[in-house]
């Protein structure tokens, strides 16, 4: 029994030695790989009528791992050559611009490798048809770290020109999005002088989004009747300038001024206290423009994203002539959207 036991031990030792020699003989045995993540690009709330660019940032993270096996030296860890490719996104097109969408509506934007927002820094891919380049680089590993992560800031921009005419739905703030699921890939290979396309491919996804706000601006001109006698009627016209987000419906109302009654407005001579009756309408001799009370009407319209001119037509009807002087009234115009 002692002899059999000794023989078994010797046999086991021989097998272990043979296994060790076999592992040492494997020249390239390793489990190297890379992964990629990208944060969402969120532009927040954007106003199509602000006439300004909107920018946002995201972070691209590439991590590569090196696994040391038997016979491999930490000094020989190969460099990881990486290319992070991005296609046009779910909005379609060639990639310049890319588009966020809401239903059939589109909002142009793009993503860049630096804050110059230049064509040369446009994030693209190795197969881009417009010359946009991938985010490329080399990562060098140290075994003690287990893996190395490289972070890159990605810069997003919506130019003011892309916002012109972009609309909302239902007179409420509207979310526009672009998905890059199926449009983002990481290509990588290990070894000096190797192309990133010579190795494996890893996919990733993220989203770009912006909330288009329902917004309006208004400015008014003075309605000046000039000098003359109220024994004959006098007319004057002046515009209101209205700029509203496309598809946004709005209303413009006017109060009664000094009289407090939009159906019976008066201008007043501050020296004598005398008054002079007049009226305002949105069309010549149309219904009196007021706040909807006393038979008056409010003006309604729909925004286009561009500035619209809404005319005020004033009339001083024939009436008893008061003392000559300067007659004025102040009207408050209210825009509701």
Please give a handful of descriptors for the protein shown.
337 residues; mainly beta; Immunoglobulin-like; six-stranded antiparallel beta sheet; five-stranded antiparallel beta sheet; disordered N terminus
Description of the molecule:
The chain has 337 residues and is mainly beta. It has two domains: 184 residues, Sandwich (Immunoglobulin-like), CATH 2.60.40; 121 residues, Fimbrial-type adhesion domain (Immunoglobulin-like, Sandwich), CATH 2.60.40.1090. The chain has two helices and 21 strands.
CATH domain topology of the largest domain: Immunoglobulin-like
Strand order of the largest sheet: 13-14-19-17-16-20
Q: Overall 3D geometry?
A: rod-shaped
Number of domains: 2
Helix content: under 10%
CATH secondary-structure class of the largest domain: Mainly Beta
Share in β-strands:
35-45%
The total count of strands amounts to 21
Helix and strand string, N-terminal first? HEEEEEEEEHEEEEEEEEEEEEE
Backbone CA Rg: 36 Å
For the record, the CATH architecture of the largest domain stands as: Sandwich
Distance between the termini: 100 Å
Characterize the main sheet.
6 strands, antiparallel
Structural class: mainly beta
Mean residue pLDDT = 88
Low-confidence stretches: 1-30
């Amino acid at each position: 029994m002692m002899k059999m036991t000794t023989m078994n031990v010797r046999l086991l030792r021989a097998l272990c030695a043979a296994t060790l020699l076999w592992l040492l003989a494997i020249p390239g045995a390793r489990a190297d790989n890379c992964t990629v993540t990208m944060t969402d690009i969120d532009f927040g709330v954007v106003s199509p009528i602000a006439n300004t660019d909107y920018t946002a940032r995201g972070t691209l993270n590439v991590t590569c791992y090196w696994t040391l096996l038997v016979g491999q030296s930490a000094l020989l860890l190969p460099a990881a050559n990486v290319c992070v490719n991005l296609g046009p996104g779910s909005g379609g097109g060639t990639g310049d611009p890319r588009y966020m969408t809401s239903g059939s509506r589109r909002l142009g934007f793009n993503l860049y490798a630096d804050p110059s927002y230049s064509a040369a820094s446009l994030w693209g891919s190795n197969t881009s048809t417009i010359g946009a380049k991938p985010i490329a680089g080399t990562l060098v590993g140290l075994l003690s770290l287990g893996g190395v992560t490289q972070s890159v800031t990605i810069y997003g921009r919506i130019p003011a020109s892309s916002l012109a005419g972009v609309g909302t739905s239902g007179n409420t703030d509207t979310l526009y999005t672009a998905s890059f699921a199926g449009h983002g890939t990481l290509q990588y290979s290990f070894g000096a002088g190797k192309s990133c396309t010579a190795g494996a491919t890893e996919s990733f996804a993220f989203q770009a989004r912006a909330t288009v706000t329902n917004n309006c601006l208004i400015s008014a001109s003075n309605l000046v009747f000039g000098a003359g006698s109220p024994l004959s009627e006098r007319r004057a016209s002046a515009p209101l300038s209205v700029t509203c987000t496309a598809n946004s419906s709005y209303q413009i109302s006017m109060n009664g001024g000094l009289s407090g009654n939009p159906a019976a407005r008066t201008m007043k001579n501050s020296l004598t206290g005398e008054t002079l009756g007049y009226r305002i309408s949105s069309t010549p001799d149309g219904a009196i423009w007021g706040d909807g009370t006393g038979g008056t009407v409010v003006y309604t319209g729909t925004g286009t994203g561009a500035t619209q001119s809404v005319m005020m037509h004033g009339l001083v009807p024939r009436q008893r002539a008061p003392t000559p002087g300067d007659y004025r009234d102040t009207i408050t115009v209210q825009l509701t959207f």
